[in-house]
Amino acid sequence: MEAANLLIREAKRRDEHEHDYIDSVTSIMQCLSPVFDRNPKYAFVAKTLIEPERSIQFRVAWIDDVGVNRLNRGFRMQYSSSLGPYAGSLHLGSTLTHNVAHALAFDTVFSNAVTGFNLGAASGGSDFDPLDKSEAELQRFCQSYSTELAKYIGPEVDIPFVGMGCGKEEMGYIYGQYKRIKPTGNFMSNSDMLQAPGFTVVHFANRMLQDRGDSLQGKRVMITGSGRTARSVAKKCLEYGAIPITMTDTSGHIYEPDGIPEGKLAILNKIKEERGALLGRYIISSTTAEFNHPENLFDIPCDICIPCGAMKELDKAEINALADNGCKFVIEGGQSCVTPSARKVLKKRGLLYGPHTMTMTGPAITYSLGSGATDDDLKREVDRIYNEVKMTATEFNSHRDLYAGANIAGFLRVAKNMMLHGAV
Question: Where are the domains positioned within the chain?
Fold first, then answer.
């Protein structure tokens, strides 16, 4: 543990004000402590790894619908290319900062590596909020953002994926402008990847239950968020026979006591595909749904919770409430939805945890398999990754700790390549 603590102190010395990044480094270095104890040379590799290869920040100027000049910040954190070209999500939202991009990129190093494919890690986006913008404003912003981003990306350099607040329309505008600047083949996220994050999460959930002689059939699933990933999680849950019962957004939460069937999910999809639309509109279409009742979402009884919303939305209080109401599994459908302190409560209360390092590998898998990949291909890769993570956790005396297993498996792939490359 001494080596891990030294690395954590080094990260704090360099970036003491970046709390999300420090939380990520602390959690992951603690997972890697058995690796350092077994082979101390890996601690020196980890010291290099906590510093990103490139950190890019730039101004994004655009004009709104009334002719006013607007400014936002653009980010691209190109963290590691030891396994291949940088690859990672673009996120759009007012909460995106250098600190958040730094944390997300660091996490992506391990989630991309654990797939077994030759992809590096990156993350980025902008503090631009697309929800309250017109289509014309969105296009002007994306074109301005892409004009600068184009200097740093390409099929052999950096591959952007869809992310929070950056879906089909946003990525389409970004890629359209990129093609004007650098004519090239299609290398950015395509339509095949839009549902991959959600489907991957549910495949992992089913695999975790199978490993314990159970299945998703009949399980009540609490889903937070209502974006593309949350809705694709609900869709795949229905295919497995599970019962999605909730969704959330900034206005509150909806609760369907008998579940959200395909017909009602189609209504939700139609509502949420309209930019800026809120879940409250769904109540008009459903006589059985409850809006913001009970007041605390996590007081609703469920078997499985799949958080697909904001970073750190599940803390100790939420985990305790879930456990008190019968929840047995928490499986992340977004990056870092569970706080480090909440992970300790998960262990204490006996809830099984599917970490984002493992579950949020959908875009990397789908990109690596190519445009012809099917859901069966995705499921096969999920089985392979799950087995490797489980074996790694057992090898390093962390039986059933999938968070430790995923981080160790990803780190070992990256570290071995970094040692071959030398001091670069």
Answer: 2-193, 196-354
